[in-house]
Amino acid sequence: MATESHTNYTAVWAWLLVLLFVSVGAVYLPFSGAITVAFIFLVAAVKAVMIAVYFMHLKDETQLIRALLWVPVAFFIIMTLALVPDIVVDRLGDDGAAGTHTSAH
Amino acid sequence: MTYAAEGQTNREMPFAKMAMWWFLASEVMTFGGFLASYLLFRAAAHGAWSELAAHLNPWLATVNTVVLLTSSLTIVKAHQAMQHDDQVKAKKLLGITVILGVAFLGFKAVEYSIELSHGYTPLTHIFWSFYYALTGLHALHVIAGIVVNAVLFVHASKGKLTLARAEAAGLYWHFVDIIWVFLFPLLYLSY
């Protein structure tokens, strides 16, 4: 935006560093791998949103600009999820349950 | 300074900014394709890649993350300085951003040299292929950002930097930062 943002950028940066060290420290906590990975990626998502909202000024932007970011992100998520069944079928094949599936890996 | 002061009163936002957002939209899909492939291959490996990922150096990558996050702060401050038409401050902050970008590449080069000295090349395993492709593509983006920021540094030195250019360069640099925010846990922390 042409108008000046009154965001305290140094505070945002400090929070980003705190979140970074939280995610690094989470690896050493006695939780299961799945919970730790989920937590780490949740923290990464929060950091990415903070950069987009405050540093890229998305909070002050028009709907068009917001759509330019969120539509491709939605496509990325759909693309990834759409391919998940391939892994599930692959796993069944490895277990011998599916029988007919052959893996190229 | 405002866009109007740059002779852009006849449009809602400068072309540079709109073009940058369209470019970043395409970049989401470029990195998205790579990241989706990596995620799915890794999930299909049923945890077998964890042992390989453990050979990476998370501490060096953490330092690099701090460097990149700090460079995001300096470039957004440069943009803020340009909103007050403070070319001198913008020049100083752009210079620091360039130095931090070079430092990021330096740490990355050290990391690559350690991994290569242990025999982990892109041909060793598909995990390493992904590692070098993802971090290499990101590093290319960092190099492009450093060049652009260095050019703007020169513009600011001559007192000719514009708000629109400072903002567009900042948007690109923050996007490069966001990509690293996801690469870092994907490669270094998820073992």
Write a brief caption for the model:
The complex is a heterodimer of chains A (105) and B (191). By secondary structure, chain A is mainly alpha-helical.
Give an overview in words:
The complex is a heterodimer of chains A (105) and B (191). Chain A has 2 domains: 1-61; 62-105, no CATH class. Helix content of chain A is 70%, strand content 0%. Chain A has helices at 9-26, 33-55, 63-95. The longest helix of chain A has 33 residues, at 63-95. Chain B has helices at residues 15-44, 50-53, 58-83, 87-117, 126-157, 163-189. Chain B is built from 6 helices and no strands. In chain B, 79% of the residues lie in helices and 0% in strands. The model of chain B has no long low-confidence stretch (mean pLDDT 92). Chain B is mainly alpha-helical and 191 residues long. The termini of chain B are far apart. Chains A and B meet through helix 1, helix 2 and helix 3 of A and helix 1, helix 3 and helix 6 of B.
The level of helicity of chain A is over 70%
* Terminal residue distance of chain A: 48 Å
The CATH level-2 architecture of the domain at 57-189 in chain B is identified as Up-down Bundle
**How many helix segments of chain B?**
6
Question: In the CATH hierarchy, what is the superfamily of the domain at 57-189 in chain B?
Answer: Cytochrome c oxidase, subunit III, four-helix bundle
Labels describing this entry:
heterodimer, A: 105 residues, mainly alpha, 3 helices, flat, B: 191 residues, Four Helix Bundle (Hemerythrin (Met), subunit A)
Write the layout of secondary structure elements.
The complex is a heterodimer of chains A (105) and B (191).
Chain A: H1 9-26, H2 33-55, H3 63-95
Chain B: H1 15-44, H2 50-53, H3 58-83, H4 87-117, H5 126-157, H6 163-189
Helix pairs in contact in B: 1-6, 3-4, 3-6, 4-5, 5-6
